[in-house]
Specification:
This protein has 248 residues and is of the alpha/beta class. The chain has 6 helices and 13 strands. Helices cover 24% and strands 30% of the residues.
Length: 248
């Protein structure tokens, strides 16, 4: 990944995680002794990313101050980008003008053991303009699900079924030219970009991952992530470092 820029989206207000995020931004909530943004940066440093762009908004000053003063200091080059108004989950890309030809976009509230290098390799093999990392989740519904035939007859009924759904992990690989489809100075989210690419018949791949994954921005998953991280922090912090140009 030495030729890859990574954009980390860390500008959200974290309203789902209140009261945890009343005083601090979501990117600084802790798993054990480590803010989630630090865990992510350690992983990216281990896999040899070229540079990280931190897309900041809400309480950007606290995030930047923490990273500049923290006991652990990343050896990754980090560039800070500040949005003056919320630009959504992909709109901040319009503020960056020197991204690598292929770049990765990651939500700052993701705890995962996903191999970013394997994701990147898959994207390049598929030759797509975008690749979305997806994870299979079992979702317990609270309702009886009715299946209808074309003539509005009941064809089936399942009481509170367990549904298997492929969900986006908040980790994406894009070719830089997708930025041409992102409008400047207004909110634009990843689903908007994906819809635009689909409408243009642009090839988009799904990277199906069975790796550990939790959306730490969701209260229930945050509690699970706290438990799992405390049980084995080395699982998330001690990823093997990729060989450097000197040792490869």
């Amino acid at each position: 990944m030495r030729d890859i820029d990574v954009v980390i989206l860390a500008g959200g207000m974290g309203t789902r995680l209140q009261p945890h995020t009343f005083a601090i931004p979501k990117a600084l909530i802790r798993l054990g002794a480590h803010p989630i943004i630090e865990i992510l940066l350690r992983q990216l440093e281990s896999c040899g990313a070229r540079r990280v762009h931190l897309a900041l908004g809400h309480r950007a000053d606290l995030i930047q101050a923490h990273l500049e003063q923290a006991q652990w200091r990343s050896r990754l080059p980090i560039a800070y980008s500040l949005e003056e108004r919320p630009l959504g989950t992909v709109g901040p890309i319009t503020l960056l003008h020197d991204l690598s030809e292929t770049f990765m976009l990651i939500n700052a509230d993701v705890l995962t053991t996903l191999s970013y290098q394997q994701l990147l390799d898959y994207h390049r093999r598929r030759g797509c303009v975008a690749t979305v990392a997806v994870h299979r989740r079992q979702i317990q519904t609270s309702y009886g699900i009715v299946e209808l035939s074309d003539d509005a007859r009941i064809a089936g009924h399942r009481e509170k079924p367990l549904l298997a759904l492929d969900v986006a992990m908040g980790v994406y690989v894009f070719q830089r030219r997708v930025a041409d489809r992102i409008p400047a100075a207004r909110r634009f989210d990843v689903p908007d970009l994906i819809a635009s690419l689909i409408a243009a018949a642009a090839p988009i791949a799904a990277y199906q991952s069975s790796d550990y994954w939790m959306d730490v921005g969701c209260p229930d998953d945050f509690a699970i992530a706290q438990r799992d991280f405390a049980a084995a922090p080395e699982r998330f912090l001690n990823a093997p470092r990729q060989p450097t140009a000197e040792t490869a």
